[in-house]
């Protein structure tokens, strides 16, 4: 059985990844770590939780050693919009955090590392429709620059030290448990809360802005599937993945099928330029071919599920 360390467990993905991993690998085998207090209950009630800052190298090594860790999910990151407000901090957290994890992993012979990249690795010169796995990576945001650098770094650690590093370029993630923070795709989560609570939403992207997205159950499945993929079948370390693509206007229309009174207006801010530099849709055929990536949720199914869950909760 794996002994898994999840760094950044209190974030949008971590807070649902940890319970999903505990289901599969056993509660005691999944150590959730974070810096944010209070940690969400969904994390604290289900298994071991400790404080960990990936920038503190010694503490990181201590945890890996004492908890007998063999697998790491490194989820701690500043997202695109925060990254543009604090570019130096984004570089520090995203790159020095990853470097510390890779270094500790090398010292303690970690079996496997999952570190998510992002569609932010692409940029204005990348083809925006059906963006291929292997293409131009010239992002215009600090977040994107940290993701491309991270992709090169994990490849380097594989080539030089034989570390089994794996990564997927995540699109915007839609989820009902923990709100994202500081991203450009955050609107696609906020809109649901506002539709249920206030029946209206002001979107910070234009109506026609189309971006690739994925629903959380597919995201956690994606993480586990790539972790467990047979190494002999993987021909690369970074994979495009996607669940669906829609514009802000299309999402609003889909929500109106469930909440007919829902109204939306559009006041684009600085995040519009970030969205305009990213793909509108993603070609994830290599992930499908090499490790049978197969998402289950499209726009209709995801919207219905989000509305059902949030209606009950709010
Ligand atoms: N969700 C992220 C963001 O918007 C993209 O990886 O920054």
Describe it for me?
With 314 residues, the protein is of the alpha/beta class. The chain has two domains: 4-172 and 216-240, Rossmann fold; 173-212 and 244-280 and 296-313, Alpha-Beta Complex (UDP-galactose 4-epimerase, domain 1), CATH 3.90.25. 43% of the residues lie in helices and 16% in strands. It contains twelve helices and 13 strands. It has helices at residues 14-25, 41-44, 57-66, 80-85, 87-107, 142-161, 187-197, 216-228, 248-256, 271-276, 285-291, 299-313; strands at residues 4-7, 30-34, 49-51, 71-74, 112-114, 117-118, 165-170, 172-174, 200-203, 210-215, 238-240, 244-247, 263-266. Strands 1, 2, 3, 4, 5, 6, 7 and 11 form an eight-stranded parallel sheet that branches. The protein has a three-stranded mixed sheet with strand order 8-10-12. It has a two-stranded parallel ribbon with strand order 9-13. Strand 2, helix 2 (41-44) and strand 3 (49-51) form a beta-alpha-beta unit. The longest helix is centred in the N-terminal third of the chain and has 21 residues, at 87-107. The mean pLDDT is 97. The structure holds serine. Serine (SER) is lined by residues 79-80, 118-120, 143, 170, 172, 183-185.
